[in-house]
TrEMBL record:
Lineage, highest ranks first: Eukaryota, Viridiplantae, Streptophyta, Embryophyta, Tracheophyta
Annotated ranges, domain COBRA C-terminal: 144-333
UniProt membrane topology term: Lipid-anchor; GPI-anchor
Keyword Flavoprotein carried by entry: no
Official protein name in the record: COBRA C-terminal domain-containing protein
Principal place of residence: membrane
PANTHER family membership: COBRA-LIKE PROTEIN 4 (PTHR31673:SF23), PROTEIN COBRA (PTHR31673)
InterPro entries recorded: COB_C, COBRA_pln
Regions crossing the membrane: none
Taxonomic superkingdom: Eukaryota
Similarity remark: Belongs to the COBRA family.
Annotated keywords: Glycoprotein, GPI-anchor, Lipoprotein, Membrane, Signal
Pfam families the record matches: COB_C
Keyword Glycoprotein belongs to the record: yes
Length: 365
C-alpha cells in the first residue's frame, strides 16, 4: 500500500552504487573521496525506494515506478512485481571476490519483514532469436565503451562518465599530440593485446556519440559517431546495437548498413548498425581516421514521440557485443522551458513584429 515498500541491506565490503534505474536511494552518503564521477550512493547500508509513476524514460526499468505499491499476486500478477537495476562498484569482479550483501529488510506500511540471507543463484541466461542457443551473463572488470549525448535544443554536451572504463591505464596513456605516436611500429598490436589509449577522462577504447540533430514536422534526425581511442587496435567488421523505441520506424540510414533486431516478436525497438563493405566496415586505430559516423532519419509516432525527459536518447548501446556505459540519467541534455512554450512564443513574436512594422511604417510616413 501507499507510501510503498522500502528495501535496505548492508554491503559486505566497501561497495558503492554507481547508478540506479527504476529506483533510488533515500540518501547519497559521504562520497567526498570520489572526484569527477560521483556515485549515486556511498552508504554502507543503503535504503532504496521505488520511483513515482511518470519519471523520465531514461530512469525507468521493467516493472518499476509504481510509487512502491505492489498488488497481491492472486489479484493481479502483472502488478505484483517491482524491479530495479543497480550498478555496483568496488565489489570485485569474479565469483571469488564478490561478496553477498547481508541484513536485508523490506519495510512497508505495518511491521515489515526481515529477510533471510542472500543466496547465490545461477547466472542470468539469454535466448538467441532462433531460440536454439543460450548465452550467459558475465561479470566484466570494466566496460570497453561509453556513450555521450548532445542535442540541437541544448548547448550542453553530456560526456562519457569519468573513468567509465576504469582508469587503470591512466598511467600509460598518451596525449594525442605526443611525439611517441610518430615512432615507427607504435600501432603494432602486442602479444598480450595491451591497449595504448589516448588520454581521456573516460579512458575507454571506444566512444559512441548520439546527437539529436534536427526536428521536422513528421520526422527527426540523429547523428551517430563512433570514435576509436586505442592506437593499437582497429575494428574490422564492427557492429553497433542500439535500443530506442523509435527504431520501429526507421526511414533512412546514411553511411551505415542497418538491420532491425526483433528479440521479442511484438517489440521492434532494437537495431544493428554496421559498416558498408569496402567503405567504412573498417574503423582504423585512434587518430585522424579512427572514427565512423552516420545519420538516421526516423518517422515520428505522434502518440509516443517527445523531446522531454530524455526520450530522444537510447536506452542501451552495445559495440561489438559489449554493453557501453551510458551517462547518469540526470545529466542528459534537458529541454529548455522556452521550448515548451515555443508555439506561444513564436505567435507572440510574430504579432510583436507585425505591430512594430505597422508603427514604424506610420512614423516613416
Amino acid at each position: 500500500m501507499s507510501p510503498g515498500w522500502t528495501l535496505s541491506w548492508s554491503w559486505a565490503k566497501k561497495e558503492v552504487i554507481w547508478s540506479m534505474v527504476g529506483a533510488q536511494t533515500t540518501e547519497q552518503g559521504d562520497c567526498s573521496k570520489f572526484k569527477g564521477n560521483v556515485p549515486h550512493c556511498c552508504k554502507k547500508t543503503p535504503t532504496v525506494v521505488d520511483l513515482l509513476p511518470g519519471v523520465p524514460y531514461n530512469q525507468q526499468y521493467t516493472n518499476c515506478c509504481k510509487g512502491g505499491v505492489v498488488a497481491a499476486w492472486g489479484q493481479d500478477p502483472s502488478a505484483a512485481v517491482s524491479a530495479f537495476q543497480v550498478s555496483v562498484g568496488q565489489g570485485g569482479t569474479s565469483n571469488k571476490t564478490v561478496k553477498l550483501p547481508k541484513n536485508f529488510t523490506l519495510l512497508g506500511p505495518g511491521p515489515g519483514y526481515t529477510c533471510g540471507p542472500a543466496k547465490v543463484v545461477p547466472s542470468t541466461t539469454f535466448l538467441t532469436p532462433d531460440r536454439r542457443r543460450k548465452t550467459q551473463a558475465l561479470t566484466r572488470k570494466n566496460p570497453s565503451c561509453c556513450v555521450s549525448f548532445s542535442s540541437f535544443y541544448n548547448e550542453t554536451i553530456t560526456p562519457c562518465p569519468s573513468c567509465a572504463c576504469g582508469c587503470q591505464n591512466k598511467h600509460s596513456c598518451v596525449r594525442k599530440d605526443s611525439k611517441i605516436l610518430s615512432i615507427t611500429g607504435v600501432n603494432t598490436p602486442r602479444k598480450d593485446n595491451a591497449p595504448l589509449l589516448q588520454c581521456t577522462h573516460h579512458m575507454c577504447p571506444v566512444r559512441v556519440h548520439w546527437h539529436v540533430k534536427l526536428n521536422y514536422k513528421d520526422y527527426w534526425r540523429v547523428k551517430i559517431a563512433i570514435t576509436n581511442f586505442n592506437y593499437r587496435m582497429n575494428y574490422t567488421l564492427w557492429s553497433l546495437v542500439v535500443q530506442h523505441p523509435n527504431l520501429n520506424n526507421v526511414t533512412q540510414v546514411f553511411s551505415f548498413d542497418y538491420k532491425p533486431l526483433v528479440p521479442y516478436e511484438s517489440i521492434n525497438d532494437t537495431g544493428m548498425f554496421y559498416g558498408m563493405k569496402y567503405y567504412n566496415d573498417l574503423m582504423m586505430e585512434a587518430g585522424p581516421f579512427g572514427n565512423v559516423q552516420s545519420e538516421i532519419l526516423m518517422r515520428k509516432d505522434k502518440n509516443t514521440f517527445s523531446f522531454k525527459q530524455g526520450w530522444a536518447f537510447p536506452r542501451k548501446v552495445y559495440f561489438n557485443g559489449d554493453e557501453c556505459m551510458l551517462p547518469p540519467p540526470d545529466t542528459y541534455p534537458f529541454l529548455p522551458n522556452s521550448v515548451h512554450r515555443s508555439p506561444v512564443s513564436f505567435s507572440a513574436l510574430l504579432i510583436s513584429s507585425l505591430v512594430l512594422f505597422l508603427v514604424t511604417g506610420h512614423f516613416n510616413i
